[in-house]
Please model this.
Amino acid sequence: MHEKAAPVYAMSDIVRFGVSLEKTLLDRFDTLIRKKKYTNRSEALRDLIRKEFVMKEWGDDREVAGAITYIYDHHKRDVLTTIIDIQHDFQKLIISTQHIHLDHDNCLEVVVVRGIAREIETLADMLTAVKGVRHGTLSMSSTGKSLG
Ligand code: NI
Model:
């Protein structure tokens, strides 16, 4: 039988190190990672470190990837054409757009993007500022190249 899916790194690349921490802080950390469904502290700590590097990439205006999500009422005047105009103006950043008809009035769109952080933030700002667009969020991720 096959073992559990092998990690992308070799075991020899893994370094163990001790961390000194106040008991109260560690208790809070354990509560947090239980809520987030981590199975162990190491995986939680790895994700926290990666998250810091992703934030740094966005600050540095390097190439990043992410998703812009928003909801709008497609009956609202001009909302559709405005959104499509903006998407065409930024087509170099957009990998794909998924459109979901939530109900009779509301549409959900997820725009997957990759490019320079500053430009993606501009696109996200423009889309979420369209009159009739609600709950716009930008989910910042990484191209993965620097995460390991
Ligand atoms: Ni729709």
